[in-house]
């Protein structure tokens, strides 16, 4: 990999999305381990962060141990972006990227919007609390049909792991996806999935190390040109 000599060089913000049991967490962990072995500065983040107080509330809800209304659940998901508050979280993420550290993120705002709107909440209402989040450099969608996902081990252990609901979530992801997302068929052999993912990620990291654009700038994924998510963008401070 290239050295961080370019003043505009930075880490990449890379997000993995997909239905429950699509393999996001496993792929994130394997990818993180492989890139660490290659000496790439990298951190693995996961949302919701179930180690926080808010994350534990969500975890209890997902495990069917507590009841919450849909609006409350969505707003709690938004809060998990930072236990010390939204400005702190944004500053931390930005500083990590500027220092050259790549962030691999297991779910991002898309998940909260897809799952909440699948319950019937207005999709624009679901997007509104996400204003100001950094736009990813790469979104990889691990593609699997709800029916195939339901055949995987452990399915049904959490509240949302129901076939009909996952079909609704899949439809909402179709609305959120645009031409910038990279799609990987996770019904392929594991070796092929890992190879495709690694190639996409390494290419993105190299591009960012060469000084590609500003972090979450207005011309990135969630710009006004994005008809699905025009209200989610981050304009770097001057």
From TrEMBL:
Tell me, which GO biological process terms does this entry list?
dTDP biosynthetic process; dTTP biosynthetic process; dUDP biosynthetic process
Q: Which UniProt keywords apply?
A: ATP-binding, Kinase, Nucleotide biosynthesis, Nucleotide-binding, Transferase
Which pathway does it serve? Pyrimidine metabolism; dTTP biosynthesis
InterPro entries referenced in this protein's UniProt entry, alphabetically: P-loop_NTPase, Thymidylate_kin-like_dom, Thymidylate_kin_CS, Thymidylate_kinase
Give the enzyme class.
transferase
Q: Which top-rank group of organisms is this from?
A: Eukaryota
Q: Which GO terms describe its molecular function?
A: ATP binding; dTMP kinase activity; nucleoside diphosphate kinase activity
Give start and end of each Thymidylate kinase-like domain. 16-196
What do the Gene Ontology cellular component annotations say?
cytosol; mitochondrion; nucleus
What Gene3D superfamilies does the record point to?
A: P-loop containing nucleotide triphosphate hydrolases (3.40.50.300)
Has keyword Kinase? yes
Q: What is its EC number?
A: 2.7.4.9
HAMAP family in the cross-refs = Thymidylate_kinase
What family does this belong to? Belongs to the thymidylate kinase family.
Name this polypeptide is given:
Thymidylate kinase
Q: According to the entry, what is the taxonomic lineage of the organism?
A: Eukaryota, Viridiplantae, Streptophyta, Embryophyta, Tracheophyta
């Amino acid at each position: 990999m290239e050295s961080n000599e370019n003043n505009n060089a930075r880490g990449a913000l890379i997000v993995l999305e997909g239905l429950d049991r699509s393999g996001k967490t496993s792929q994130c962990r394997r990818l993180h381990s492989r890139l660490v072995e290659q000496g790439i500065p990298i951190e693995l983040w996961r949302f919701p962060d179930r180690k926080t107080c808010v994350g534990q509330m969500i975890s209890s809800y997902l495990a069917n141990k507590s009841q919450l209304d849909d609006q409350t659940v969505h707003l709690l998901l938004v809060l998990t972006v930072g236990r010390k508050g939204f400005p702190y979280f944004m500053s931390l993420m930005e500083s990590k990227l500027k220092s050259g550290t790549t962030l691999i993120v297991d779910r991002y705002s898309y998940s909260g919007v897809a799952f909440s709107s699948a319950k019937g909440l207005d999709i624009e209402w679901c997007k509104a609390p996400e204003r100001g989040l950094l736009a990813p450099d790469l979104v990889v969608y691990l593609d699997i049909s709800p029916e195939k996902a339901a055949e995987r081990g452990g399915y049904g252990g959490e509240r949302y792991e129901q076939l009909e609901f996952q079909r609704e979530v899949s439809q909402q992801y179709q609305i959120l996806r645009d031409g910038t997302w990279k799609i990987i068929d996770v019904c392929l052999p594991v070796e092929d999935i890992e190879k495709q993912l690694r190639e996409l990620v390494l290419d993105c990291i190299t591009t960012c190390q060469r000084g590609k654009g500003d972090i979450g700038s207005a011309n990135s994924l969630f710009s006004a040109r994005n008809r699905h998510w025009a209200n989610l963008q981050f304009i770097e401070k001057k």
